[in-house]
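Researcher: Sequence recovery benchmark, item below. Answer with residues only.
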């Protein structure tokens, strides 16, 4: 979800000190918080996945009030899907944890309109996901879809993903710890910058992709970059006839050179990609003007 108009607003919240990976001490002239931030934590891998638990542990250790409202089962690739069934099954296996038998979007809606029905959370965080959500992968990601559901309902949201280490799932699992650490730093920074107001501009969310650094995934990222979403498709399907009406499907993964300033470029350089996004599908001003010129003069 590439939104050029959102970039300057969110980038202002993540200016130079954050890009250096260090957080300055809180300014003395800012009001002291009266209560900890209330965070709804979701994902698409399932409520008990290692990524969401790593982020939960880190955020609660930082003093935030965190409630997990996430899918009961793995819903990777669900995108922004929301079910329209007349009933939904929800389990409450432990304190501060709700498991919704539905999509990431269903989970966030249950969280906003039931678990947090008396007072909306200050922030929705989705992740961290096992594997990246950069380029057009983000368009079909349930991790990003959960954040979109929050943005649609007026709540600031962040999607968080940990890049996959080829052939080494343990390195990806290990990298979830520095991903969770960065997520907590980011929330700290947004809280400090907000001066007790909204954590992000209206309608703007962040899609975070954290690299796997080092052979075991425990290394430190080389920096933080505010990026755009790369436009390449990454996955290419092919179809061959099987029997009857059935076709065999195979999917090839391939990367081209990333666009300058993109999320993919940052990840490949070992940096954390922070991509501002919006929940709508409005084109930027330049693209909208070109589209308007293309249809100018048409009549029914």
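Model:
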């Amino acid at each position: 979800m590439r939104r050029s108009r959102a970039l300057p607003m969110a980038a202002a919240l993540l200016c130079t000190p954050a890009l250096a990976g260090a957080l300055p001490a809180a300014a003395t002239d800012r009001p002291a918080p009266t209560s900890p931030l209330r965070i709804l934590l979701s994902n698409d891998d399932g409520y008990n996945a290692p990524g969401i638990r790593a982020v939960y542990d880190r955020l609660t250790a930082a003093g935030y009030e965190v409630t997990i409202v996430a899918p009961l089962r793995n819903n990777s690739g669900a995108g922004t899907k929301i079910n329209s069934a007349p009933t939904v099954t929800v389990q409450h296996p432990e304190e501060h944890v709700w498991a919704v038998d539905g999509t990431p979007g269903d989970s966030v809606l249950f969280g906003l309109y039931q678990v947090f029905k008396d007072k909306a959370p200050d922030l929705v965080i989705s992740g961290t996901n096992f594997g990246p959500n950069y380029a057009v992968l983000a368009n079909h990601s349930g991790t990003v879809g959960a954040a979109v559901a929050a943005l649609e309902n007026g709540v600031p949201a962040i999607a968080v993903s940990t890049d996959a280490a080829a052939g080494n799932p343990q390195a990806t699992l290990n990298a979830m710890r520095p991903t969770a650490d960065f997520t907590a730093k980011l929330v700290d920074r947004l809280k400090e910058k907000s001066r007790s107001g909204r954590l992000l501009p209206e309608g703007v969310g962040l899609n975070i992709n954290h690299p796997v650094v080092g052979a075991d995934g425990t290394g430190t990222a080389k920096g933080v970059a505010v990026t755009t979403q790369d436009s390449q498709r990454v996955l290419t399907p092919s179809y061959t006839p099987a029997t009857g009406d059935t076709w065999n499907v195979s999917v090839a993964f391939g990367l081209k050179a990333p666009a300058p300033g993109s999320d993919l470029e940052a990840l490949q350089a070992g940096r954390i990609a922070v991509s501002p996004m919006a929940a709508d599908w409005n084109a930027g001003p330049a693209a909208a003007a070109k589209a308007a010129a293309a249809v100018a003069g048409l009549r029914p």
